[in-house]
Amino acid sequence: MEIKEKMEAAGLNAASVATELGIGKSSVYAIANGTYTGKPAIADKVKSFIESRYEEAEREKREVFLTLKQRVFLRGLEFSYEDSELLAICGPSGVGKTFTAEKFAAEHAGVIYFKVKEGFGWKNTLSEIAALFDRNEHGTSSDMMKTILSAVKTSGCKMLIIDEIEHIFMDTRKTAFLKRVAFFREIQEACGVGVALIGLDVLESELRFAAKSYLTNRIDCLLKGEAVDAQEMRVFWENVLNMPYSKNLDAIFEKAKMHGNLRILKKLARRAAAMEGNIDAALRFIFI
After folding, report:
1. DSSP assignments along the chain, one per residue
2. pLDDT in tens, 2-41
3. Each residue's pLDDT tens digit, 70-118
4. pTM score, whole prediction
5. Which CATH superfamily groups domain 68-224?
């Protein structure tokens, strides 16, 4: 890409570059068009500045890429945050649930993000949540729940996001799940904060089981994620991962929908970069 194209892609023009660098606009214009005959140091300074802004713009463009479902997830999180609602987000692995939750938490004040660890018991999970509020509580589950409720009320917390929540009900006791999730509903109601529960598809089925309970009646919104479509995968592949597109990749995109979605494409791009751009060779090291 020529320096003029990079300047335009970065949202710059000769006047803005001249103002930033204290250089004449005509000089910047000539440098961008390849007709400059002045001092090489001036040309290098302008080109370096444009290159830097172009790279920054490209990085920002990659960072803000969101699929349609991810944009829906973010909107749901915004509603929960602003209106102190109880939100549930479910869907298969790789559709961007965690990505959007972490992005939202990083960009909003007063959001506590917690990911449940697989294999941890309920008391250990409560203990870790309490630690997020600088509370050390190792009593009974009831004691720890009281501690967390008190901490949320006094901490200035505006929203609590619980990710991978399916790990707290991977057992045969349906009632245990209801009691545990009901605790987060209690936080939302008693503390007046938004609460988002995020998990795999099993989260929805468990909530459907509780259809006649007080818990389900308190859920303000349930959003379902779906596999990323092939067109969005191509945009992600080309614009975010900066990888070249070819027709034979369509079959890979279709397979990726069943094996991790965008996550698998990230791995494939990293492997290909390590193998001098050879995508076919990189595929040997990816389960897809």
Report:
1. --HHHHHHHTT--HHHHHHHHT--HHHHHHHHHT---S-HHHHHHHHHHHHHHHHHHHHHHHHT---HHHHHHHHHHHHHHHHT-EEEEE--TTSSHHHHHHHHHHHSTTEEEEEPPTT--HHHHHHHHHHHTT----S-HHHHHHHHHHHHHHHT--EEEEESGGGGS-SS-HHHHHHHHHHHHHHHHHHT-EEEEEE-THHHHHHHHTTTSHHHHT--EEEE--PPPHHHHHHIIIIIS-----TTHHHHHHHHTTTTTHHHHHHHHHHHHHTTT-HHHHHTTS--
2. 888 888 888 899 898 999 899 899 999 899 998 989 999 9
3. 889 999 999 999 999 999 999 888 788 998 999 999 999 999 999 999 8
4. 0.71
5. P-loop containing nucleotide triphosphate hydrolases (3.40.50.300)
